[in-house]
Design a protein that fits this description.
Length: about 850
């Protein structure tokens, strides 16, 4: 507890200092540059058209009423999620396993409460910038600041609450499911071991998409069009901040705990999830903090920000109000369809899987998950064409655009199924690349095993990158077939790329479900071992009497380990999908900046600056790569230092003789260590990214555009490489443990070392690049407008001075992210 209090005090001190700097720099500048209400307000000044002015479907229902029906589907999604939640809670479970899962939940709950307070500190800092910009420097045109500013700030809190709330729901569902999965494995049948984690994942996926869509529909339908812009901007900033904090801090936490726990297997030659290891409870907490909380918040933000980006494009790039309404309603009907297609595919796949595996003694756990993804993709694509035919049969006088736009979205939906297949080529336990890691390690130990993992990651970048490019190219080609003329649209290719990103998310609940499958399978193994169920007196007779089950302990452990391999694979498959949406969707947000800088692409002199011939633009392209590689190092350094302290504590306090399990106090101490270094690492990264964004926006707006493009492209390939290399190392270890049965051997030691190298690769740095790219681009919309306004009113000298000040602050935290996080011997 003292460590947590010290961590919180550290965070408060640092936040107070930075908050003061921001207030002095930004509010001072804004007060000097206060503008009348007629000044531009950027995306917050966008006005939504009247949705009721256009009728849809053969019976002529207007757009507003049509989307009101969508709310019913959202309520259905919420009911679906809660029904599975209650069902999971009521599944049978032995008391020894339930006690462990509840202990994991309690530590997760403490972690989330701590993180919630930390996020509010970061929000207070962000609020200063928002208040300075929308309150003084660039208020929404023609609207009282006293109304618009609270709306923006209020909806930023709604965005944070959304990310935070679905993350909390995710850990509660998963900590029910982990003990129920462990218990369901006892009879030795594989189907229940597969079914329960998938049910948990679908519960989270349906709840997440339904909540996000409900909030977006509320803004569209019940907030006056004049104020919808501020609501969307505030919501997007809040969910982006919440996701970034939970994803980065969760990724650091989970890998500190994972490495600390795993290394004990080598040091003390103890088994996986040995109950005497104080690091195991922290590892279980980390599985939820990093692999459940982070992805849930990240997924919520991804769906929200992608929607805001498309709405912004439609309002900026389409001139006709009626076409704007057609596209807006169509987009949101497609989002509602996402719930329908995912739930229908889930039940269809469930019936097939139960008929095939319900009473089987053996099953390939990856097979029904793969079929679920493909069935959902096919159903989603079919519904996309069908619904588009009825909703936009005639767009701007062109009766062919419905199938062309459907084809663009379907490119993204296809990517949502194709990319996981490509990822499995490099990460599955059946993959030749993963088996090559094992083969290399047999003679070359950890060194050659690690090198083979690098090979898998690099090759995956080539194939996944080309596949994304090909699908985007198809989308681009379809956008050249009359879209600009029919919709009166500027830059239809950019809209096509945004629709591809939207299509990536077309299987939303299922994408989240297969990603959430992994944390449950991982925790289920741990719950089994920590429960010490095999040592409970007369437990077999007790289970037979109370649950009418015949127990097979050896078979149970084998199934849980094999299922964990499938979980590792599908955790890996979801990561490129999310990072792909961040990169492809970023193009749509960058377009908003370009539109503002070039006066709607009419200022030819400024348009010419979007070229390699304009030096600042080219220099921005170089700078983005620097930030991506620094971020990778900073997040990994936080893991390294935290893991060192965790290992140091565990080695000093682990008791292997005369005890059955580690003390709760020691386990909580490891959790405290993980939390401390997760928050320290997150604070350094956030402040460096935040002030770096301000600094580069103030240098030159076209420098900043180049910078945003660069972080998207560098971030895409860095994330793909790291995620898939890490997953290859992870499943190489799983092959040694499950297929080769060589635990405790030198080969096992070598693959464990590879896995610990891959831990921050796949679950810290790579996954956090997604919210970092989106947060930087979204916040950049405000930063570059603020810089341009300041340059016009005070001259470029002022902006250059502020750019230097902001950069020095960012550089200070970049420096601190290593030198302030270095391992100091003998220091805690």
């Amino acid at each position: 507890m003292r460590t947590w209090l010290a961590t919180a005090a550290f965070a408060r001190r640092m936040a107070t200092r930075i908050f003061a700097v921001a207030a002095l720099l930004t509010v001072g500048a804004a007060a000097a540059l206060a503008q009348p209400a007629e000044a531009g307000g950027g995306e917050a000044a966008l006005k939504l058209p009247d949705l009721s002015q256009v009728s849809f479907l053969p019976w002529g229902i207007d757009g507003h009423k049509l989307l009101l029906i969508g709310i019913l589907f959202c309520l259905f999604g919420l009911g679906f999620g809660m029904t599975i939640y209650v069902r999971l809670k009521n599944l049978p479970v032995h008391r020894s396993m339930r006690e462990i899962s509840e202990l994991i939940y309690e530590t997760c709950k403490t972690y989330l409460i701590t993180q919630g307070k930390f996020i509010l500190l970061l929000w207070a800092f962000i609020a200063v910038i928002i208040a300075a910009y929308f309150g003084w420097l660039s208020p929404v045109p023609g609207k009282p600041v006293g109304l618009t500013l609270p709306i923006i700030l209020g909806f930023s809190l709604v965005g944070i609450a959304g990310s935070y709330g679905v993350a909390w729901f995710g850990i509660r569902v998963n900590t029910f499911a982990n003990s129920r999965t462990a218990f369901a494995s006892l009879p030795g049948k594989p189907y229940p071991v597969y079914q329960i984690p998938l049910e948990a994942g679908m519960s989270i996926g349906m709840m997440l998409i339904s909540v996000e869509l409900l909030i977006m529909l509320f803004i569209l339908l019940f907030v006056p069009g004049d104020y919808a812009g501020p609501c969307f901007i505030g919501f997007a900033i809040g969910e982006s901040l919440g996701a970034a904090a939970l994803r980065i801090a969760g990724g650091i936490f989970t890998k500190i705990a994972d490495i600390g726990s795993d290394l004990m297997k080598i040091v003390f030659k103890i088994k996986e999830d040995d109950a005497r290891n104080p690091g195991v409870i922290a590892d279980c907490t980390g599985d939820n903090a990093g692999d459940s909380v982070g992805p849930s918040a990240d997924g919520f933000e991804t769906y929200g920000v992608t929607g805001v980006a498309l709405i912004t494009f439609i309002l900026l790039g389409v001139k006709s109000p009626s076409v704007q309404v057609q596209l807006l309603v169509w987009i949101f009907v497609m989002r509602v369809m996402m719930l329908v297609s995912s739930s229908a595919s889930y039940f269809l796949n469930g019936a097939i899987a139960k008929a095939k595996y319900g009473s089987a003694n053996e099953m390939n756990f990856e097979a029904p998950l793969t079929s679920l993804v493909w069935i959902t993709s096919i159903v989603s694509i079919g519904l996309t064409y069908l619904i588009s035919y009825f909703v936009i049969p005639d767009l701007g006088g062109d009766p062919t655009q419905w199938w062309k736009l459907s084809t663009i979205i379907s490119c993204g939906t296809l990517a949502g199924a194709l990319i996981p297949e490509l990822v499995k080529v490099f990460t599955s336990t059946e993959s030749k690349h993963v088996k090559e890691v094992v083969t290399s390690a047999e003679e070359g130990g950890a060194s050659l095993g690690i090198l083979s993992g690098f090979v898998a990651g690099n090759f995956s970048g080539y194939y996944l990158g080309l596949s994304m490019m090909a699908l985007m190219a198809i989308g681009y080609y379809m956008s050249t077939m009359g879209l600009a003329l029919a919709a009166g649209m500027l830059a239809p290719a950019v809209f096509a790329f945004g629709l591809v990103a939207f299509g990536f998310l077309g299987m939303g609940p299922v994408t989240i479900a297969v990603d959430s499958y992994g944390p449950v399978t991982d925790n289920a193994q741990s719950v089994y071992e920590l429960s010490l169920i095999e040592q409970v007196p007369n437990v077999e007779a007790e289970i037979k009497k109370d649950f009418n089950l015949t127990v097979n302990f050896d078979r149970s452990k084998h199934l849980l380990e094999a299922n964990d391999g499938a979980g590792n694979t599908f955790k890996a498959t979801a990561k490129p999908v999310l990072i792909g949406t961040a990169v492809v969707g970023a193009t749509t947000m960058i377009f908003s900046i370009i539109m503002a800088l070039t006066n709607g692409l009419t200022a030819t002199e400024d348009v010419a600056k979007l070229s390699l011939l304009y030096a600042p633009f080219f220099l921005g392209l170089i700078t983005g790569g620097a930030m991506i590689y620094w971020f990778t190092g900073a997040s990994t350094q936080a893991v390294t230092t935290g893991a060192y302290r965790a290992v140091e504590f565990i080695k000093a306090n682990i008791k292997l003789e005369g005890v059955e399990k580690a003390s709760i106090a020691d386990s909580k101490k490891v959790v405290e260590i993980c939390t401390k270094y997760a928050q320290k690492g997150m604070l350094n990264i956030f402040i460096a990214v935040f002030f770096g964004t301000l600094a580069f926006a103030f240098v030159d707006p076209f420098f900043f555009v180049g910078y945003l493009i660069s972080i998207a492209i560098f971030g895409l390939y860095q994330a793909i490489f790291m995620a898939n290399a890490g997953a290859a190392w992870d499943n190489a270890k799983k092959i040694v443990e499950v297929e080769l049965k060589q635990k405790g051997t030198p080969l096992h030691d070598a693959t464990v070392i590879g896995d610990t190298v891959g831990d921050p690769f796949k679950d810290t740095s790579s996954v956090a690049l997604n919210p970092v790219i989106k947060f930087t681009t979204l916040f950049g919309l405000l930063a570059v407008e603020l810089a341009v306004k300041l340059a016009l009113d005070q001259g470029s000298t002022m902006t250059r001075i502020l750019a230097l000040v902001f950069f020095l602050i960012s550089l200070g935290f970049v420096h601190r992210s290593f030198y302030g996080m270095r391992i100091k011997r003998g220091a805690e």
